[in-house]
């Protein structure tokens, strides 16, 4: 927090700066001179959406910032490739997941669009009570459930392996999507970029 005042001559300004950090983050968090949040020793639980609020005497402005951790920060490996689609066609946003072991029993997959003015939740897909063995992680015997955000209910499906299928793609659908995978062993997330191709498809 900064409280600024003009000097009596009107040419200089001085500011009183105050920084308060909650106990949970005191060893790791600080604020730079430009008011950016500095978070040291990042770990999987730090990934996600952060909200910034700027307040003055006559204005309050909020924005969201998404933190994506790059690299291997959990016992399972997650990677992705860019996705492409034609207008009004179906886009498939996929990722590659390698669980830490063949005996896992729970995985939750979350998809959201993070390049719009605000983050848009899309889908939560859960595999629970998994048993048996299979060559592909998604082919084990599991209870599956999914929940689609109201904005996407008419256009979104999910494949057993967590691939997001987005129908009738429009310009506003292009951008960066974040897939987050949670399991008892940890958490990982990766971005998937969706672009639009307007070249006529070959027959």
Notes on the protein architecture:
By secondary structure, the chain is mainly β. Helices cover 0% and strands 49% of the residues. It contains no helices and 17 strands. The strands form 6 sheets. A 6-stranded mixed β-sheet has the order 8-17-16-11-12-13, with no helix packed on it. A 3-stranded antiparallel β-sheet has the order 9-15-14, with no helix packed on it. The chain has a two-stranded antiparallel ribbon with strand order 1-2.
Key descriptive features of the protein:
3-stranded antiparallel beta sheet, mainly beta, 49% strand
Quick recap:
By secondary structure, this protein is mostly beta strands. Helix content is 0%, strand content 49%.
Q: In terms of topology, how is this protein built?
A:
Blueprint: E1 2-6, E2 13-17, E3 29-31, E4 37-39, E5 48-55, E6 60-67, E7 77-80, E8 83-85, E9 91-93, E10 95-98, E11 106-113, E12 120-131, E13 141-148, E14 156-158, E15 164-166, E16 175-183, E17 186-196
